[in-house]
């Protein structure tokens, strides 16, 4: 019974999204079963640039660092990938993901090389390993945010930010509150998403005529084209309202304004968290037997220290 339910759920996921998720899970299972050293396959900029181990760009994206890593990544990918595949078509999303893996890896390596050679002269950056599908997920997340008709989106239920800046805010929060996260890897994915949105990758992508012709080939039509979760190109038109049809394309000025608004929202949210910690500290000292004047002074000092720390932090809490 459970197998039937699992099959029904998997059958509802569009084909390309399901295929990449299955591939990542199978590869991770092989790593676990055969006790494979993934250090030979993760993305390491120095080995790609100087030793020509270009396969690491692909294998580094498809492999993951552990069970929780792949679970969270695949949950996010199944949601975002399914949404985009319904909008773009199966073959279109396939080429989008393939190019996103390559471009995110190139941007990642380039950024780490610049940090090592031109900025810090510290080889740690170019030798830093990275693994996971997160770069592609952030690419797709940014593309999906530009297609969304909702003006704002909730971030962990703490605050609402402009939808188009949701991936940027998520990048900052994950980097602040979680350890061992590849900031450059996630940022590279977002930058590739920006390239997709503004048409900079259009010369690399197949034309609409290519997708239509490819779907007409018998080996595509008979093997995957008849599957119910295959989304043809162009996809069936989704119902839209008049407001959605008149919605203008992405504007760099609007995006910059949204970025500033999102940074301000992050500042206020993190500032509130810091203030609560300060208030809790003052309350605890009051409970230990200090008089009210002393407790008030400590509370004021705590808030002042919090504000001073906030001004010194690079993200301006």
From TrEMBL:
**Superkingdom to which the source organism belongs:** Eukaryota
| A Pfam family of this chain | Rhomboid
List cellular component terms (GO). membrane
Give positions of region: Disordered.
281-317
> Per UniProt, what is the membrane topology?
Multi-pass membrane protein
Q: Where is the composition biased (Polar residues)?
A: 282-296
Q: Which family does it belong to?
A: Belongs to the peptidase S54 family.
- GO BP term (any one): proteolysis
**Which parts of the chain span the membrane according to its record?**
12-34, 54-72, 84-106, 165-198
Q: Which UniProt keywords apply?
A: Hydrolase, Membrane, Protease, Transmembrane, Transmembrane helix
What organism does the UniProt record list as the source? Ectocarpus siliculosus (Brown alga)
Know the name of this protein? Peptidase S54 rhomboid domain-containing protein
State whether keyword Transmembrane helix applies: yes
Q: Which InterPro entries match?
A: Peptidase_S54_rhomboid_dom, Rhomboid-like_sf
**Per its UniProt record, what SUPFAM superfamilies does this chain match?**
Rhomboid-like (SSF144091)
Q: Which PROSITE patterns match?
A: PROKAR_LIPOPROTEIN
Quote the subcellular location field of this record: Membrane
Q: Where is the Peptidase S54 rhomboid domain?
A: 52-200
Q: Which Gene3D superfamilies match?
A: Rhomboid-like
Keyword Protease applies: yes
């Amino acid at each position: 019974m459970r197998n039937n339910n699992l099959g029904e759920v998997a059958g509802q996921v569009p084909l390309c999204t399901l295929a990449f998720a299955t591939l990542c899970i199978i590869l991770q299972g092989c790593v676990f079963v055969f006790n494979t050293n993934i250090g030979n396959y993760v993305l390491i900029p120095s080995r790609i640039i100087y030793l020509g181990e270009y396969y690491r760009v692909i294998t580094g994206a498809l492999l993951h660092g552990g069970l929780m890593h792949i679970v969270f990544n695949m949950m996010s990918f199944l949601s975002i990938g399914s949404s985009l595949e319904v909008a773009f078509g199966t073959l279109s999303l396939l080429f989008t993901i393939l190019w996103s893996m390559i471009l995110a890896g190139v941007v990642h390596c380039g950024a780490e090389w610049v940090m090592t050679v031109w900025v810090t002269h510290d080889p740690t950056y170019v030798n830093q390993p990275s693994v996971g599908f997160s770069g592609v997920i952030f690419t797709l997340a940014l593309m999906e945010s530009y297609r969304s008709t909702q003006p704002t989106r909730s971030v962990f239920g703490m605050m609402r930010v402009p939808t188009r800046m949701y991936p940027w805010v998520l990048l900052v929060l994950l980097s602040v509150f979680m350890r061992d996260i590849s900031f450059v890897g996630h940022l590279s994915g977002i930058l590739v998403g920006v390239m997709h949105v503004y048409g900079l990758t259009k010369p690399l992508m197949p034309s609409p005529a290519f997708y239509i012709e490819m779907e007409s080939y018998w080996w595509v039509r008979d093997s995957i084209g008849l599957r119910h979760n295959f989304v043809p190109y162009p996809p069936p038109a989704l119902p839209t309202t008049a407001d959605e049809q008149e919605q203008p394309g992405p504007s760099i000025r609007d995006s910059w304004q949204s970025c500033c608004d999102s940074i301000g929202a992050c500042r206020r949210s993190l500032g509130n968290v810091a203030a609560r910690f300060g208030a809790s500290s003052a309350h605890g000292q009051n409970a230990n037997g200090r008089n009210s004047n002393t407790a008030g002074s400590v509370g004021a000092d705590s808030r002042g220290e919090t504000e001073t720390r906030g001004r010194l932090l690079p993200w301006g809490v």
